[in-house]
Amino acid sequence: MGSSVAGMEGLKIADVLDADPRPTFVIDLDPDEELPKPVDGIKPLVAVFSNVALRTHERLFDAIIGVDARGLNPRDIGPETDQDTTASDASFAAFRKWATGVTPHDESGDIFPLSFLYADMLWTGSTVHKRWRLISGNRLWRDTGPLHDLSSGSPPDVATGGLRAERAEKKKKKECIDTPTGTTIAAESARLPTKTTGSSDDTGASSLSTSIVLTTPEKAVADWTCEKPKGILSPHLEFARTIHWGATPLGSMDSWSPEFRQAANLCMANPHPAAIFWGSELTMLYNEAYSNEVAGNKHPALMGTGFSGPFAELWDYTGPVFAECARTGVSVRKEDDYLPINRYGMLEETFFSWSFTPLYGGTRRIQGFYNAPFDTTKQVLSHRRMRTINKLGECTAQAKTVKQFWNMVLDGLQDNERDVPFALLYSVGDGDDGDHSSTSSGSTISLKTCHLEGSIGVPDGHLAAPLNLDLKRSRDGFIPSFREAMRTREPTLLHTRDGTLPEALLDGINWRGFGDPCREAIIFPVRPTNGENVVAFLLLGVNPRRPYDGEYVSFTSMLNRQLATSLASVMLFEDETRRNRDVVEAAALEKQHLTQQLDLQASRLRRMTELSPLGMFLISPEGVLREANDRFYEMTGHTRETEYEMSWMDFLTDKSAAIMRGGWQQLVGDRQPWSSELQLKKSSPSPVEFNGESIESWVLLTSNPELAADGSLRSIMGSITDISHLKWAQGLQNRRLQEAEETRRQQNEFIDITSHEMRNPLSAILQCADDISSALATCRNDVAPVVQPVVESCLDAAQTITLCVQHQKSIVDDILTISKLDSNLLLLTPVASQPAEILRRAVVMFDPELKAKDIQVEFDIDASYNQYATSWVTIDPSRVLQILINLLTNAIKFTAPATVRLITVTLAASTSPPDCGSQPGFQYVPANTETPAATMTDDWGKGELLYLRFDVRDSGCGLTPSEKQMLFQRFKQASPRTHAQYGGSGLGLFISKRLAELHGGQIGVASEAGLGSTFGFFIRARRCAPLHVDDPARDAPLPIETHLSGSPSLTLRPTPQRQDYAASPSSVATHNLITRRSPAAAESPAHPQPSSYFDAQAPASLRPQDISILVVEDNLINQRVLVKQLRKHGCTVAVANDGIECLAFLETTHFLKAGGVALSVILMDLEMPNMDGLTCVREIRRMEAEGRMVVAGKGGHVPVIAVTANVRDEQVAAARGSGMDDVVSKPFRIPELWKKMEGGLIWDVRRI
């Protein structure tokens, strides 16, 4: 068979048409040259080809072919016609219109209708590629013999209304039947009309007789359901009579009603497939045509059974149709309806035009249905497959290259999912050919490589579809079948049953159409009609629900021919195009390159815009946001739907919006670029910092005006950059810098305070030491015994040294404690202790100072202390005592200057942490979470957990709210004047806070300016058993007591810092600021004469006794020691405690008052309360500038020397810049001070 098919491929279409005996011609529906139109406006029949049968019939050819053709009368072909010329001309116009027209029902371009009667000929037409129209004519048959009876024909002829019946052996005589009107109905045989005066729809009266003779049939069985039917029973009727109908819902045949018998006889006599579905079970009765054309293998078991069982595959679809027809009684008609039937061992794709007609069986109710199905599967499949062939031709006609051709082939096959369940297309090229679509010159398999051009239904990377295959050596995919198809060069059928279609290669394919896997596939070795080489392999799956029969073979043959023809056209076109393209190829390539570059640049710009971290925008001159990338909307929170004038400014804060309006004016009005940092409103999602808190959203907006060629403003384009983290980092950096600066300032302040506090007593120490050394040296040189005043002077100097050392020691202790706390080296030592006893010891330690300052102390043991029996608990008594000492020290310090001097200490207990509600305004300082509480270890015992609270309330000056905020911080005091007025380093409360937190507690304060303060803290403790009475640890001194006591000389408490605070309130008012040297004092041994240093260094005309000095010093010890030393050498010394008192004294001097007190120099401290030294000296210099200073009628200058412990260069420079004449740094000796005074500061002052 293969060789026969190969032989057919050599045939030409012209040879086939010439062999056809029917007159046939071909016309071009889309000619390249436009033909002239006739007067009637209908295209002429200009044939591009006429076969031999038409060309030999010259009259027919001349009458219908050509521009001058005028049509043909039937008499020109046959003698029997009476058609006139006018009718012929009209028919020819209709014939031309039909032959050149196309169907209006679809886009196939086919002829409609498929046939046409003209000039006693039946003409049929078909269209190829929507262009070539083939028209063939068939002569109508005429019966010239005598008429015969219909009853003389065979049953098939009678049933189908055949045009001629065989003559029966016995001739019946014509019978005449008299009608009531006397008319005889003659029995005449039917014959085709010999004259056509209109269309097939013409219902006009016929000139022929329509009377027939109705008699008993000679062969057919009138009623096959009767007990003894007469006539010849067909095998199917005999089978139907053998059915045991009594076992079916229909009952036995003798019980069938006349109406049902009539329907059953009608069904069986119908030459077309027909069936009756009777009763609610739809019991089936069908004729022979139904069993052959519809039932298939379901027959004979189908007869007498219900429809839903044997046709279960159809019931889901037909069941509702039965139900609707039974409900409404309206007949149902379906055309080309898809019905999947399993009748030949497979679920088959079939199409039927069928109808359901209700049967009433002589009643008023529907008893069953009459079904008349016509199998239209061949027509539907043929139309579908032809549509695929046409679609393939249309698609491939668009291909310009072979490479495009492969894609178009797959596109053409894409729509027919049922006949193309899957497809693979491999092009064949040379092994080293980079263009897989190119054709090679040879056919040697060893040089071929298959490249996958595409697939339908096969996933990428599937086992059956490798990208490249070696046609000789590879065993992958379908290469073995490809080699066989290349050898035969014919479509090859593959089967799963014989292994040629491996099932392993079918796994994972996405089956199209019905979704059923294919059992067969076809390989098309594609080669052009004008070549011998196979250039591709097309593998198509066979429809799993259709047998691969002759019609399927015809479809594959047409498909193969269409591929070959289309491929040849494409290859010819490609060759022709290649030859014509050489001239313009360079320009085309350059244009393509430039286009690609432009597209690439545009694509890159689009991608850059979308991938850019910048928010890009384009705004119209009216302020409407025209375009923006996703990042812009993401950063700003602006929605794409909201686009009105200046809507894009809604995401800015009010301040930034005002800035933006100014920038918009610059952009639109001045048409100048503009950039600024803008703050956004809360964005979503908000950026967060390291601790998870949201930060402000900031963007850097950079914009430029886009100008048209005429200089007009076209748009504003720009971008926004998220600088939120940058702004946050800058803010963080600024805060860190400020914090670092503040830390440095605090450290410098602490260093200054520490240096000041350490150096301040050193001057007193040095001067007291000099005093002792001078006195002892004098006694050693003199023979006279030591007098009592000298001894007292030495003792007083020694005590002063002791006090200064103790002051320095307390500062060093605080610094060491801070260091241990920062390094977590300070550990608590739990000891069984009595809290009340610790409180008593703390007060006893300050007893001498309390008495000296006339301060009363009251004990307040709260009832809760005894209620919870907390007389013995486990705590660190030394650290608790340290906290109490710090609080009592502050209380004494701030209470001493007050009018009412009262300190109240309170002790309370509780089982839970005490709150702040017991005292109005009391607040605990938030605890430092980094400070671990050390009271829960085993060393503290297992006793009940208790909380002890200590309060120290004073009647001092109190604190303002801003001053309270500064407490409990490192290096911090209530105010800058606190140190100047009361001293201290600002570490005591900070240490107390950390020690309280180490005990698992907190510290707090309640204070109001002018009403005193209450400092309180609570600690965590555990109840414990009391120590034995004889236990030496019971009354042993605490380490801090020993540390603070030391030698007996260290038990002295520091004296007040201020001179005015050292005296009682009554004596303060009478304190004399000026102390002059009296003659008696000069002669007293307690006040020796000026030292040889003064006598040696002073000019001969100036003696120390003539020098008047004002000492401005707030520290009592330094003040007393310095005054003592200066007076000891014979100077007149006055004392002031601060700058205000200094200015008051200056008003009494000769500088401001004629005849006033003489003043040679002012020795001024810097750190003082009320008015510091720098402020005071600036005021003095202001007075000098105003001319208020007068000495002997001339302008005067007041010599002022700074005496301070602030010795850093910037501090010295600040002092000089404020107006100090010189600076003496502490510690100093009197000779050093005298050098400063003798340096030309006072010698030119005329003695008064």
What is the structure about, briefly put?
With 1248 residues, the protein is α+β, with helices and mostly antiparallel strands. 37% of the residues lie in helices and 18% in strands. Residues 753-1023 form the Histidine kinase domain.
Features:
six-stranded antiparallel β-sheet, single chain, phosphorelay sensor kinase activity, phosphoprotein, eight-stranded mixed β-sheet, alpha+beta, disordered C terminus, 1248 residues
Give a description of the structure.
Residues 1038-1096 are annotated as: Disordered. Residues 753-1023 form the Histidine kinase domain. The modification 4-aspartylphosphate is found at residue 1165. Keywords: Phosphoprotein. With 1248 residues, this protein is α+β, with helices and mostly antiparallel strands. Helices cover 37% and strands 18% of the residues. It contains 36 helices and 40 strands. Strand 20 (615-619) and strand 21 (625-628) form a beta hairpin. Helix 18 (724-781) packs parallel to helix 32. The protein is elongated. The chain starts with a helix and ends in a 10-residue tail after the last helix.
**3D shape:** elongated
CA-to-CA gap between the ends? Answer: 155 Å
User: What's the total number of strands?
Assistant: 40
What is the structural class?
Answer: alpha+beta
The amount of beta strand, in percent, is 15-25%
Cα-atom radius of gyration = 64 Å
Low-confidence stretches: 77-90, 147-208, 976-983, 1046-1101, 1243-1248
Give a quick account of the main beta sheet: strands, pairing sense, barrel closure.
Answer: 8 strands, mixed
How many separate helices? 36
The share of residues in helices is: 25-40%
Task: Quote the average pLDDT.
Answer: 78
